[in-house]
Amino acid sequence: NDETGFIIQRRTANENSFIEIANLSVNSTQYEDYSIISGQTYYYRVKAFNSDNESLYSNIASITIPMPPPLPVQAPTNLRIVGSVGGRIDIMWNDNSINESGFIIERKMSHESNFVVIGITNENITFYRDDNIMERREYNYRVIAFNSNMESEPSNIVTITSEYKSINTPTNLKASANQIGKIDLTWRDNSDNEIGFLIERKSGSQSDFGFLDRVPANVESYQDNSILQNTLYEYRIMAYNLVTESNYSNIVSIISLMTSIDDRNNDYDLKLFQNYPNPFNPATVIQFSITKEVFVTLSVFNTLGEQVAELVKQYLSPSTYSVNFDAKNLPNGIYFYKLQAGDFVQTKKMILIK
């Protein structure tokens, strides 16, 4: 009861000696220390003093300052769809936290009961592209912020029905005529969701393309066997599936091959001569010869492959024949006359000019 004050000393677990942190007045019995750090352990002792001397130190008291609870991770907001193109869906959201380690993206389809994780981003990322979707399906999305201690509440949920995935256009369409009566097409398949390719063709004076044939998915070639000799053909193709189709490929043009003698063996020693006159108006003479008796047909076709006249259709004895062809009822243009004797075929071109 003769003290004039008290001296408060403190040290930490990392310090070897106490240091004075406060000098209190007479009769003081408590002190509040505000210069502390969370997670640190502190040791305290007290001694009384007056003008003549000092007391011994009190017992040592210690305390460990607890760490504050972690800050909550704020939930992302304003989740929204920012892009939907066939095959992918893009989403964005607002980042409301300063202590997240990243974001968890969850998705649920209309027939599913629970959301499942489809992706995780790093901190401060507010965009995600989902490119693992099916066409015309309903998808629900939500986003959760997280760090090593906790996860936020989920964001709002957004719902979208995916669009049809477009079909990539086939490219590099090429045509070649390496055999009589055949044109070969090749192209590059750039899509993975087609069920086939549509092949279109036009020839001669045709103004529009028409359907020629179709081939299955992943096929990159086609042989056109339904052609006339020495004729200009144009081709284009497109990929298609059950719901949509691609744009047309590039257009290729090619003239089919022509020969005076067919590649097959001429068992009948047949010869087909060029008509005379040629060009003609409106009549011309077609001459041919055979060395054995055989059934012979001589027909005339336009550039569409349509038969416009049948000049001979009968058995003939070995001889040379001349047949008159009158085209007074036909329009100007290119025509083909075809002679067939047994398995042997020859075709030649003639031009009508009125």
The mean pLDDT is: 89
CATH superfamily of the largest domain: Immunoglobulins
Q: Determine Rg (CA atoms, Å).
A: 47 Å
Shape: rod-shaped
CATH topology of the largest domain: Immunoglobulin-like
Task: Please mark out the parts with pLDDT under 50 across 5 or more consecutive residues, or reply none.
Answer: 260-266
Strand content: over 45%
Q: Domain count, please report it.
A: 4
Largest sheet: 4 strands, antiparallel
Classify the helix fraction into a percent range. under 10%
Number of strands: 25
Distance between the termini: 143 Å
Just name the CATH architecture of the largest domain: Sandwich
Helix tally equals 0
At the first level of CATH, the class of the largest domain is: Mainly Beta
Strand order of the largest sheet: 2-1-3-4
